[in-house]
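Records of this kind hold a single protein each, on a pair of labelled lines. With that in mind, the following record should read easily:
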Amino acid sequence: MQVQLSGQQIEVTQALRDHVNSRLDRLTRLDDKILSLSIVLSVNKLQQRAEGTVYVSGASLHAEALEADMYVSIDILFDKLVTQLRKHREKICDKHQRAVREERQYG
């Protein structure tokens, strides 16, 4: 999986990189077929923004979080991405199971 971490009007420190990397295992535990992850960290006056896009086969999932603390923004971002990834996986599994049931019924 490719991980791209960039900052707008903020220097991405090693501590921020470590924090993002520590949260990555939550995504990889759900789906090991993630193609890439792109995260952009930015500061706008008092708002710390973290935006992330996860590319999986067949979809791209996007989320963002605005908080007063960058570490909290990163945590909320990963919570949102995990939720979206779970829903995406459920859709795929449900479609597959429905196709198998129809094949058994009509086949």
Summary: The chain has a mean pLDDT of 90. Helices lie at 14-30, 70-106. The first helix runs from residue 14 to 30. The radius of gyration is 17 Å.
